[in-house]
Known about the structure:
CATH topology of the largest domain: TIM Barrel
CATH architecture of the largest domain: Alpha-Beta Barrel
Shape: globular
Largest sheet: 11 strands, mixed
CATH superfamily of the largest domain: Aldolase class I
Bound molecules: pyridoxal-5'-phosphate, iron/sulfur cluster
Number of helices: 18
Structural class: alpha/beta
Amino acid sequence: xxxxxxxxxxxxxxxxxxxxxxxxxxxxxxxxxxxxxxxxxxxxxxxxxxxxxxxxxxxxxxxxxxxxxxxxxxxxxxxxxxxxxxxxxxxxxxxxxxxxxxxxxxxxxxxxxxxxxxxxxxxxxxxxxxxxxxxxxxxxxxxxxxxxxxxxxxxxxxxxxxxxxxxxxxxxxxxxxxxxxxxxxxxxxxxxxxxxxxxxxxxxxxxxxxxxxxxxxxxxxxxxxxxxxxxxxxxxxxxxxxxxxxxxxxxxxxxxxxxxxxxxxxxxxxxxxxxxxxxxxxxxxxxxxxxxxxxxxxxxxxxxxxxxxxxxxxxxxxxxxxxxxxxxxxxxxxxxxxxxxxxxxxxxxxxxxxxxxxxxxxxxxxxxxxxxxxxxxxxxxxxxxxxxxxxxxxxxxxxxxxxxxxxxxxxxxxxxxxxxxxxxxxxxxxxxxxxxxxxxxxxxxxxxxxxxxxxxxxxxxxxxx
Length: 465
Ligand SMILES: *Cc1c(COP(=O)(O)O)cnc(C)c1O
Ligand code: SF4
């Protein structure tokens, strides 16, 4: 193991030169408790590497509009500062100039240079954010259930068997991803938030819907919550017969990347593991839906220890992530990520297409390229890693997988398929769109073979009004 010291810090960073798994020896210990670093700390943070003045100013401009948050673990152990600005974790966390449209960037930069009054900057920021599609794929309009005049605010029920829940205490993360499609939740604009305080409402809704088999807790990051808050949400599943039908409980998280100490050193880490174990013992499938974009997130000893401890509870860890320019637009990166996951006991689950929101233009990858990356990556791994599906778009009608490009009856087409549908009857039916090398999302595609509409469009219109 090759240990390097980062100039300007007291800490050391472990940086293995090969990707061979090694038994944890020294586990990186956090310097104290979790502490978030934000735009206010940009100066200090960039002392870790040679970030020049222009880049620092660009970060200040972009972080005025898009959320920015990191912590010492990310800076000291995940980023390879010798490779900045190309390092994938740096791109994943640190704002870059290209993440805003030129005119938006210039507008905020000018205001900052002439030290405009705060309200003026805020007005500009508000306008720019409103133009960034804060709630893609009809999240707000169509999916929040209501019954007898009661609106279940923190819930989304889009697919018959699965309820999505956003606990209000989980609407932040240990660090923020620059591409995050949930960015609207982090910028403090109440209007844009989707959340709920109501554990009771969640349990009541689930008890009233015996056809729901899955609960998917999401955020932000539910693992930001204290264990005792998580208890309020999860404990009833271990003893309430009215919730018996909810067989699978998934928790979406990026804590294994951004703060693996959550499962190892935090003061309530052991309690969290005991809670997961209790839910497993109640006869349920507990899945940690871990967000990993790059194998570089899986190299520290502490993340490996966290994975081992979670698996010891009987919970399963599944890996999922979007494909992004500047971060993981490379089949070799995905193949290595999946191989590493399989070895560590993580099941590869989804490769997503980046959603149409926030810094989309910076990260977006054409669908045809997504498919090439997926195919070239999946060809390199054994069947154990081919549990992964994708590339998949979480679009208004459902999750649509790009199966590939093919020539059918002399026409070049995309072959697509629903992995999830707002109407379950759509699932598993291949359908065709005209090939378009530039298309990056379902709504940019047209039906192939001269048809007027995709087969699901009438049904979708009937459902969404
Ligand atoms: C992805 C997703 C789910 C879960 O879908 P699976 O295919 O079961 O993983 C549930 N609800 C929403 C809104 C989703 O986007
Ligand atoms: S961890 Fe998830 S919710 Fe949090 S910033 Fe990243 S993508 Fe967004």
